[in-house]
Write a structure and sequence with these properties.
Radius of gyration: 19 Å
Number of strands: 11
Helix content: 25-40%
Strand content: 15-25%
Bound molecules: manganese (II) ion
Number of domains: 2
Length: 310
């Protein structure tokens, strides 16, 4: 049982995935808040050094460290669709809490619910099942993940459970105004400049049902935009009536590229990028491609996606 492992541990490391988003950090921060009641030693860890500062409103964000402690005896990771997303290697007992379809259940215990909108929903359900009292800090952290992963409650996947959770969290003190202000009203000039550039070079393929974006290192340097900012355009491309898949190929500083794929669900993004060692959800997935053969890579991907569209 994950709860008995938590019970018997004395120093627990809570891990948000590399390049964390509001869901991963929100889940880790909520769990940190909860475990503070247990008088255990805790570390809030993320392997990335460049953390999106829009997440700085989350409770206990200031406790975040990049240093993995020597005396820890348990690790809990949040929203890490594959083991590599932890950004560290550990032999410690590991509890894997997630909602990604690609999650293979690694770790000593896995609490995975692929029908959950966010990992914070998985954490919320764990709290409810264990009668954990949800205070304002926990509620805000959980709500941030729910809000962001549901694309502000716009996903078709949102159901009665989603809104019941939101209702309960707001009643428990979740600060909706703070979440929206920090997450959605702090867009950088760099990201808007990048959006302009990407829109003007967007290609429509596969009978106009696939949008393709190519991001070079030069473009990243020129605009100053981050990778997360680049990928926002994929979600926006899917807002077009006939687009069923949005694909981004991002040049990697160490050679090769990163692939990001967002789909309307008819094309299974995780299944396609699995062939490239990637993972994620049916509608959003990513992979790292190490060879320098972008045009061949793009051709292969477009062929695979088009096949699924038939
Ligand atoms: Mn998530």
């Amino acid at each position: 049982m994950p709860s008995s492992l938590i019970e018997s541990s004395s120093h627990i490391v809570l891990v948000a995935h590399i390049n964390p988003d509001a869901d991963s950090m929100g889940a880790a921060c909520a769990f940190y808040s909860y475990l503070l009641r247990s008088q255990k030693k805790l570390t809030l860890f993320c392997a990335s050094n460049d953390i999106d500062q829009r997440l700085a409103f989350l409770p206990w964000f200031e406790k975040l460290t990049q240093r993995f402690p020597d005396d820890a005896d348990c690790v809990i990771c949040f929203d890490c669709g594959s083991y590599s997303r932890l950004g560290i290697d550990t032999t410690l007992p590991l509890i894997n809490i997630d909602h990604h379809e690609s999650n293979d259940g690694y770790g000593t215990h896995a609490i995975i619910n692929i029908s959950a909108i966010s990992t914070t929903q998985v954490v919320y359900e764990y709290f409810v099942a264990n009668s954990v009292k949800i205070n304002g800090k926990i509620a805000t952290a959980l709500y941030a993940g729910l809000l962001d992963d549901s694309k502000c409650f716009s996903l078709g996947k949102c159901d009665a459970k989603t809104f019941a959770m939101a209702h309960h969290l707001i009643q428990s003190g979740a600060d909706h105004a703070m979440c929206t202000d920090w997450l959605y009203r702090r867009r950088s000039l760099a990201s808007l400049r990048m959006k302009g550039r990407l829109l003007s070079q967007m290609k429509l393929l596969g009978d106009g049902r696939i949008a393709l974006f190519e991001v070079t290192l030069g473009l990243l340097e020129e605009t100053g935009a981050t990778l997360i900012e680049c990928k926002q355009i994929l979600d926006e491309a899917l807002e077009m009536r006939f687009i069923q898949a949005a694909l981004m190929i991002i040049e990697h500083p160490k050679g090769g590229s990163k692939i990001s794929l967002r789909t309307d669900g008819e094309v299974n993004a995780a299944k396609i990028l699995k062939e490239f060692g990637g993972g994620g959800h049916a509608t959003r997935s990513g992979a790292r491609h190490k060879q320098n053969n972008d045009s061949e890579l793009i051709n292969n991907l477009i062929t695979m996606i088009t096949k699924e569209l038939v």
